[in-house]
Design brief:
Layout lengths: L5 H13 L5 H9 L20 E4 L2 E3 L2 H13 L5 E5 L5 H9 L2 E6 L2 H13 L5 E5 L12 E6 L8 H4 L2 E11 L4 E9 L2 E10 L11
Bound molecules: S-adenosyl-L-homocysteine (SAH).
């Protein structure tokens, strides 16, 4: 699936290592994921650059460094098993998660993006992913609790309904803020959530409601 692009994918992995990504499982997931299949034909030549790119509908495929870091953070705090992703977008982050964790549930509010992402994941034979069209602010109560939650759009306030769907010992990584956003980690310990500010980031907004 990577063929002509394997060299570019390997170079991207080297760059991510230099920038501090250490987890070997995460790095090999990045090396094995054909990012050129997650963008439009005209952007393929940029698909292994460490940048966010437009995917239509005013949305973006996340920067590979951010994808790797968010995945690594969950793994480093001991998350294993079932993951909820909010904001499927292109499905690139979903594909990486599916190679690192046992099972991934992913929600997207824009139906056309969700359909394209679904096709890509089938093409890559990643069958441990379940997708849904809907409003991720509400999470996915019928599939909860989750060991990890990853939100790939910026929330203006902490989504309590998502925190409520974490299992004990579970963790959520999410950008919080509007203009100035902070990548934030919440770890559930009993009835408490331990909050860590990780880094300044820039994501598209987490919007309430769904569109057809
Ligand atoms: N991880 C994706 C990022 C896509 S951008 C990728 O790398 O391709 C963020 C996505 O979140 C967009 O597709 C947007 O439509 C979606 N989104 C925004 N608000 C949402 C909500 N409330 N529920 C579900 N998806 C949402």
């Amino acid at each position: 699936m990577l063929s002509n692009y394997q060299g570019s994918a390997n170079a991207l992995v080297e760059l991510l290592k230099q920038q501090g990504v250490e987890d070997e499982v995460v790095l090999s997931a990045i090396a094995n994921t054909p990012r050129h299949l997650f963008v439009d034909e005209v952007l393929k030549h940029k698909s292994y650059e460490n940048t966010a790119l437009p995917i239509g509908q005013g949305q973006t495929i996340s920067q590979p460094f951010i994808v790797a870091k968010m995945t690594e953070v969950l793994k480093q705090v001991g998350v294993k098993g079932r993951i909820l992703e909010v904001g499927t977008g292109s499905g690139y982050q979903t594909a990486v998660l599916a190679q690192v964790f046992e099972q991934v549930f992913s929600i997207e509010r824009i139906k056309s993006l969700q359909w394209q992402a679904r096709r890509r994941l089938h093409l890559l034979d990643l069958y441990n992913v379940t997708m849904k069209h809907g409003d991720g602010w509400k999470g996915w109560a019928s599939k909860a609790p989750f060991a990890g939650i990853i939100v790939t759009a910026a929330a203006q306030s902490v989504p309590d309904e998502l925190l409520a769907q974490l299992e004990d010992g579970g963790a959520m990584v999410i950008p919080i803020g509007v203009e100035a956003q902070t990548l934030t980690l919440f770890v559930k310990q009993g009835e408490q959530f331990i909050r860590h500010a990780l880094a300044p980031v820039r994501f598209v907004p987490l919007v309430a409601g769904e569109v057809g």
